[in-house]
Amino acid sequence: MIGYVTLGTNDIKKAAAFYDELAKEFGAKRIMEADTFIAWGTSMASPGISVIKPYDGKPATVGNGVMVALAVDSPEKVKQVHARALALGAKDEGAPGPRGDGGFHAGYFRDLDGNKLNVFCMA
Question: What distance separates the 2 farthest-apart alpha carbons in the chain?
């Protein structure tokens, strides 16, 4: 159902460097770009993520209660992607591990602009 998610940035070059590296963890790459936005994905037909300088010219801000969840296939990959995000300058918002019952594993972080993301799997 989700086609893509867009996150605001105030520094497109910094955001690009962060997401260029993080995208590699998912086998993704840049699939579209212009002066004010960049999108990553595995193809134009699969879900993707993008960063953009806001169209209205005002500073990008973080949505309270907004979070993007990135799916992977194992708890080990959750740990790997979370660690890579932190190594790229993200801030930890919750160490990787199981959450509740039912096999949900997740790690939470904020990107360089403060957008909240998690990486998760059902194991």
Answer: 44
Question: How confident is the model at residue 72, as a pLDDT?
Answer: 97
- Whether 113 has a pLDDT exceeding 90, the answer reads yes
Tell me the per-residue pLDDT of 81-102, one tens digit each, with 9 for 90 and over. Answer: 999 999 999 999 999 999 999 9
| CATH superfamily entry for domain 4-55+66-122 | 2,3-Dihydroxybiphenyl 1,2-Dioxygenase, domain 1 (3.10.180.10)
H helical segments located in 6-67 = 12-24
What would the two tokens of residue 87 be?
């190594």
**Nearest C-alpha neighbor of 81 from the set 123, 19, 10, 38:** 19
For the full predicted model, state whether its pTM sits above 0.85: yes
The three-state secondary structure class of 3 is coil
Structure tokens at 66: 């907004």
Calculate helix-pair angle for 75-87, 12-24, nearest 10 degrees: 150
